[in-house]
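We were asked to recover a plausible sequence for a given structure. The inputs and outputs are reproduced exactly as logged, with field labels preserved.

PROBLEM: sequence recovery
POSITIONS: 470
GIVEN STRUCTURE:
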């Protein structure tokens, strides 16, 4: 399926080889077997026979245990694809995973999406709180009579949630940025709109170090023309402190913002105003007041768009993009590693002859990266998870889906080392589209866990057998 990537039972050893141990039996005494070979009594002969029988039994038990583990990998789907559990959420109408999933302070999860099955009308923000196994504890909707569509969410310092997106029910006109702040139980504390007479959409929100919020999206009410990046900084109560636009006469869309170590911001998205081709990925670095310090474009002659930006452990950035300029097919994953000034250190594409693209990624504990999005084979579109090392080499990939269409919108590495994917699905669930939450073990962890479990079982069997012999 993927044209780029490296796909990655070791022997066991005893302290003493069988040949060395057998040689001891030619001497007069074997300390390990505690038998005297120079002249065994009948009682000692029986003990030796019992020991040999127990040894054969032990080997049989170990072989049986290993067969069980190998069979479980082949037969049990939950082990063969690494999945541990999955849940769907939705009603009879369209309910979509278009936002974010975060781990709550109690170890459960908060899932943001949009619902047409529930709420006040048309589409509403939908916040679902689950326990650590994905069982729903509560859910809340947010919206008015018209359409509200979510973009992103973050956990706030008080244990509540801040959700961004757009609203048509409230605001100045058209559709506006909408920021909703809730407590830990999803109860609305306050909400604010930002916008003009045309259309705005807040794709991303982060809580800033001063307790306020930074929102990034697109605006048609302000800026140089068409759509422009729009960055809005608020205080802790959602009141606007300042706002800035970035763009030219073309279409420029801001998707992801992070606060940098110096108190400024890094903004990523796409631009048709600047760059090498029809559309390029665009990264802008600002100071703490939103003034541009530098900007860089990335792309070729085709369409290239930035989807997700994260800081890296070395002080640089990583940027996940869609690309038609590079790669194997019509649309591919494009992952770019950047230094602190936005200069490319390396880049890699991942995909097959169909359409493949990222929506989100994380840097993993091993300093590699895990990317989610979608992959297309023939007419089937599945959610995709790709794990790469620190230099972009593919370690493994996995797909999730059925006979319909799936796309993963969010990825979380949980506190216990699992991956949690938030997927939009029309293959499973109660209605047309539903939110699908999948908890999965990273592939290398799955193999390692099976081997460790086999070793642990062998040790237990060995100790039990030795106790019975003694």
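RECOVERED SEQUENCE:
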């Amino acid at each position: 399926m993927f044209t780029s990537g490296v796909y990655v039972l070791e022997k066991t050893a005893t302290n003493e080889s069988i040949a060395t141990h057998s040689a001891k039996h030619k001497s007069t005494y074997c300390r390990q077997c505690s038998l005297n070979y120079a002249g065994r009594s009948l009682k000692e002969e029986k003990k030796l026979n019992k020991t040999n029988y127990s040894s054969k039994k032990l080997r049989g038990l170990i072989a049986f245990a290993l067969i069980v583990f190998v069979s479980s990998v082949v037969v049990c789907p939950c082990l063969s694809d690494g999945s541990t559990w999955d849940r769907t959420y939705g009603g009879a109408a369209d309910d979509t995973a278009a936002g974010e999933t975060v781990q709550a302070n109690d170890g459960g999860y908060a899932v943001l999406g949009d619902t047409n099955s529930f709420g006040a009308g048309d589409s509403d923000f939908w916040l679902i709180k689950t326990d650590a196994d994905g069982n729903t504890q509560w859910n809340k909707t947010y919206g008015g009579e018209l359409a509200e569509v979510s973009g992103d969410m973050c956990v706030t310092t008080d244990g509540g949630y801040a959700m961004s997106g757009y609203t048509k029910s409230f605001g100045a006109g058209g559709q506006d940025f909408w920021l909703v702040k809730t407590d830990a139980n999803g109860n609305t504390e306050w909400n604010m709109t930002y916008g003009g007479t045309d259309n705005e959409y807040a794709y991303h929100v982060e809580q800033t170090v001063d307790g306020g919020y930074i929102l990034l999206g697109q605006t048609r009410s302000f800026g140089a023309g068409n759509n422009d990046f729009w960055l809005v900084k608020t205080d802790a109560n959602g009141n606007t402190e300042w706002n800035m636009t970035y763009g030219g006469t073309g279409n420029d869309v801001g998707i992801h913002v992070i606060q940098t170590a110096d108190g400024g911001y890094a903004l990523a998205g796409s631009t048709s105003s600047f760059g090498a081709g029809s559309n390029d990925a665009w990264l802008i670095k600002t100071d703490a007041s939103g003034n541009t310090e530098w900007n860089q474009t990335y792309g070729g002659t085709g369409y290239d768009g930035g989807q997700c930006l994260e800081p890296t452990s070395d002080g640089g950035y990583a940027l996940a993009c869609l690309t038609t300029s590079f790669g194997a097919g019509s649309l591919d994953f494009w992952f770019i590693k950047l230094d602190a000034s936005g200069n490319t250190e390396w880049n890699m594409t991942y995909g097959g002859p169909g359409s493949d693209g990222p929506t989100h990624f994380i840097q993993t504990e091993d300093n590699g990266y895990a990317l989610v999005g979608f992959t297309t084979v023939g007419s089937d579109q599945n959610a995709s998870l790709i794990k790469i090392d620190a230099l972009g080499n593919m370690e493994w990939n996995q797909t999730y889906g059925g006979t319909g269409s799936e796309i993963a919108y969010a990825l979380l590495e949980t506190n216990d080392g699992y991956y949690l994917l938030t997927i939009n699905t029309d293959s499973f669930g109660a209605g047309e589209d539903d939110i699908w939450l999948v908890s999965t073990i990273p592939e290398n962890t799955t193999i390692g866990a099976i081997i460790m479990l086999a070793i642990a079982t062998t040790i237990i069997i060995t100790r039990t057998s030795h106790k019975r012999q003694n």
